[in-house]
């Protein structure tokens, strides 16, 4: 080969190499013997998740001969990676998704619909906890995923601090919580810890409060209804724990990396509103008998239309990409992961709740914390609005509450007008 | 360069005894062939995404259509109308973000340049420890940006951060520890981190530029009785003009487009006071699933940066020819 031919060949190879990224289809082999799975980060670290999941995947291989290649994707990347996969039609076969993304991802049409026949292949609709399945897609459409880990919010309180302050039982109304918080607030100790700079946390609370005030963030047709009086009241009630009741350390306004949990674990705050905090508290050396768990409080005088809701249905769903070349294998894997045995095993490890009814009855979930979480999930939790614009709600309203906490921390008054103006502005941006 | 090599080898071939008869001189194709990979990559990496971005900005590209763009309704200028209409909420927010970014960029670039030029001038003459000092100055530039900014976020925390510890407990400059990552101070925080990250680049370029200033000029100026400031004004800065021209432009473009610093410092939702345009666009497209609007913002920004760059180059070029 002459020099010139060699150069031409090199040029051609380089040119071709830059184009090879344009393939199509899932990463799975066409022989039906492999699957690619993106798991969400449920444990203390990505590595820990891999260690927890691998034995289960080995079990699945033994049962079916299908090898599952797992990648644990951090939460900060998961949505972007899912979007990229949905857009390019190239990616894993099976994925975990945050259940609040269900309707948005459903709208992309990139995921397999779990109609009755498909649900039948993974064990049937009736197996699943109804509240959890309600958070798997828009109402009236076949779910876009099935729930695998379920969670709800609860009120965590420090038993010793409550005893010292002479408070006999955990608060059941927000007025009682504010009252208790004032008694618990003293130098170097605050009544309540919040995650003020975390838009998602803020939005979850905005949702619950709005439900209790009889409000809604979207109407029946899916149109944003941010600036209603109920929503203004809901946002104000939450921010007022810092601005008015002064039971929250102003420093919490910049918390976004779970510092609220650390403050609670380290005795800097007496109460915390969180989803299944037990495993995180354990990791931070707070023994399980040092704190109590109670349902999130309700409004003392519920206004007309106020709902008996004190948590969102939090959790993780499992979805299958439409472009998978191994649909049967993927559904077998979903069935395996939602089987009673795996549900008990994995949810026990992660401190979450099973999303299938038979597993929920397992004694592994009889600990006080899990009992409260399960009761809330079964009786008083509601899914976040299952509309395609849900993530806009979280970003915009969560961001507004972040700004309001920042104002409250610097001593600025929080007025109804200010909240309403911000919410109206945000509402105009939702499409 | 490669073309001269080819021609020379062709010329040599002509003189070789017993070689093939001299061929007709023709355009050598090898250089062009060698350029193809670079051209394809440039097209693939830069130009095509830009064109796709422009196309996206004309579509209503939401989660309903990202899987199959051909189904996305063509809306023409609608996205631009919404984002650039300063009376609409989205337009107002973008304009606010734009002004914040201008202020941030101008201050960051100015400070980076001043610190860079100062350090370069003071390390121009050899002295003991100069090499060490130069290396030390370059460390922020050598550190991975992501990790460095995370450390800054820890230092900026109100209750446990190093900055407030120094300000409140060591220096007693303020009584009440201020917030840095939320509220009005957040713009200060992001400027501090940006300047810290950026000035070593200015320093590096200006240091290289100073190597080219002939010492005779300083000697001549000294004989004429010029002091430090006069030498700086009449010798150093004019000699650095070509370097400055590039450095300032690059600093401007980098700072204006910087995503890592604000994103890592504030997370996905920046405080209003430091709502820089790169994160704003990210928020408008990726977080809210509105890729058409986000692309329209990006294209508008690209147009703005192109105009600024063109005007800047035009002005600096004319000045060079006038000089």
Written account of the structure:
The complex is a heterodimer of chains A (431) and B (323). Chain A has helices spanning 3-17, 46-64, 75-88, 102-108, 116-121, 130-134, 159-164, 174-184, 199-212, 229-243, 259-265, 278-283, 327-337, 340-350, 357-360, 368-379, 390-409, 416-429, and strands at 25-26, 34-40, 67-73, 90-91, 94-98, 146-151, 153-158, 190-193, 269-275, 291-294, 311-312, 314-320, 353-354, 381-382. Chain A is α/β, with parallel strands linked by helices. Chain A folds into 2 domains: 27-151 and 313-382, Periplasmic binding protein-like II (D-Maltodextrin-Binding Protein, domain 2, 3-Layer(aba) Sandwich); 153-311 and 389-429, Periplasmic binding protein-like II (D-Maltodextrin-Binding Protein, domain 2). In chain A, the strands form 4 sheets. In chain A, strands 3-2-5-12-6-13 form a 6-stranded mixed sheet, sandwiched between helices. Chain B is mainly α and 323 residues long. Chain B is globular and about 75 Å long. Chain A binds chain B through residues 4, 7-8, 10-11, 14-15, 18-19, 79-80, 83, 86-87, 89, 104-105, 107-110, 197-199, 249, 251, 253-254, 256, 388-389, 391-392, 395-396, 398-399, 402-403, 405-407, 409-410, 425-426, 428-431, and chain B through 29-30, 33-34, 36-37, 40-41, 44, 62-64, 66-68, 88-90, 92-93, 157-159, 179, 181-183, 267-269, 271-272, 283, 286-290, 293. Chain B: Residues 98-312 form the ABC transmembrane type-1 domain. Chain B: One of its GO terms (cellular component) is plasma membrane. Chain B: One of its GO terms (biological process) is transmembrane transport. Chain B: This is ABC transporter permease.
User: Using CB atoms under 8 Å apart, which protein chain pair has the greatest interface?
Assistant: A-B, 50 and 39 residues
What would you call the structural class of chain A? alpha/beta
CATH class of the domain at 97-289 in chain B: Mainly Alpha
According to DSSP, the number of beta strands of chain B is: 0
- Give the count of helical stretches of chain B: 13
Helical stretch count of chain A? 18
Question: Which strand-content bin applies to the residues of chain A?
Answer: 5-15%
Tally of separate domains of chain A:
2
**CATH architectural category of the domain at 97-289 in chain B:** Orthogonal Bundle
- In quaternary terms, these chains amount to heterodimer
Alpha carbon gap, first and last residue of chain A: 60 Å
- Averaged pLDDT of chain B, please? 85
Q: Could you estimate the helical fraction of the residues of chain A in percent? A: 40-55%
Distance between the amino and carboxyl termini of chain B: 31 Å
CATH third-tier fold name of the largest domain in chain A: D-Maltodextrin-Binding Protein, domain 2
**Percentage of helical residues of chain B?**
over 70%
Membrane topology (chain B): Multi-pass membrane protein
Region (Disordered) (chain B): 1-24
Keywords (chain B): Cell membrane, Membrane, Transmembrane, Transmembrane helix, Transport
Pfam family, one (chain B): BPD_transp_1
